[in-house]
Write a structure and sequence with these properties.
60s Ribosomal Protein L30, Chain: A, 4-stranded mixed β-sheet
């Protein structure tokens, strides 16, 4: 796929994903441009300089910051690789996205997930935002460091996690225990629902616990990306900073 933006392209060429070419607008300057040129030279990635308006032929009318790259993006684990990850990780830290459809939300979630150390992001084959250039840009390139497992049926994978004693938490806006009271130290999967419907009822039956973020204002709920960030870093706090 073609991606755009200085930071996303820099992270893409640093990542293990093969990059077929990088295109820079003539006259582009700056620290990140210099880093892109240096990494391209070190990894022998073809680098082309073209007119700025020509870049839109590849990515459309977006703010591309004078940088476009063609990436061979193959992020998904096979079933065997996913099972190996679960078996070889001492305390799995998984994130399940249940039909999150806004690519900006998905990008923001993936940015936080990568920083928080999530081991794998689980997605359904249908109903979620595609992992595209918009997601890459919104994630600031974190997309290229996340691991993904895509499944036809989220219920099946949640049952698989239960069989491995991985606790499944469903994030809800106004039901369940406060996140500061939950035990996030144990192996877990956090399920985040869609922007409008939340976690679907049929998935709730496959979750062990429901958790919520305490709220004291007048607005009923936070958006999916903000909610996810708050919960992920409560998990980080419990796992790494409680003595």
């Amino acid at each position: 796929m073609f991606i755009y933006g200085r930071q996303p392209v820099l992270e893409a060429i640093r990542s293990p994903h093969p990059v077929k070419q990088v295109m820079l607008a003539r006259g582009s300057t700056g620290k990140i441009i210099g880093q892109i040129e240096k990494v391209c030279a070190a990894k022998q990635i073809p680098l082309k300089f073209i007119e700025k308006n020509q870049l839109q032929k590849f990515v459309g009318p977006v703010v591309h910051q004078g940088v476009v790259a063609e990436v061979e993006f193959k992020p998904f684990l096979s079933e065997t690789q996913f099972e190996a990850l679960l078996q070889n990780t001492e305390r799995p830290f998984l994130l399940v996205l249940d039909h999150v459809q806004d690519p900006h939300n998905v990008g923001a979630i993936l940015r936080t997930a990568e920083i928080a150390g999530v081991d794998c992001v689980i997605l359904p084959q249908k109903g979620s935002a595609p992992l595209n250039a918009t997601v890459a840009k919104t994630s600031a390139g974190a997309l290229f460091y996340n691991q993904f497992y895509m499944v036809e049926n989220l219920e099946v994978v949640l049952q698989q996690l239960a069989d491995l004693q991985i606790v499944r938490f469903a994030a809800l806006p106004s039901a369940g225990q406060i996140i500061y009271q939950a035990d996030f130290v144990q192996p877990l999967a956090l399920v985040i629902g869609s922007e409008d419907k939340g976690v679907r009822r049929n998935l709730l039956k496959f979750c062990d616990q429901k958790v919520k973020i305490p709220q004291f204002g007048h607005v009923n709920s936070l958006n999916a990306s903000v909610s996810t960030a708050i919960i992920l870093f409560e998990i980080v706090r419990q796992r790494h900073f409680l003595r």
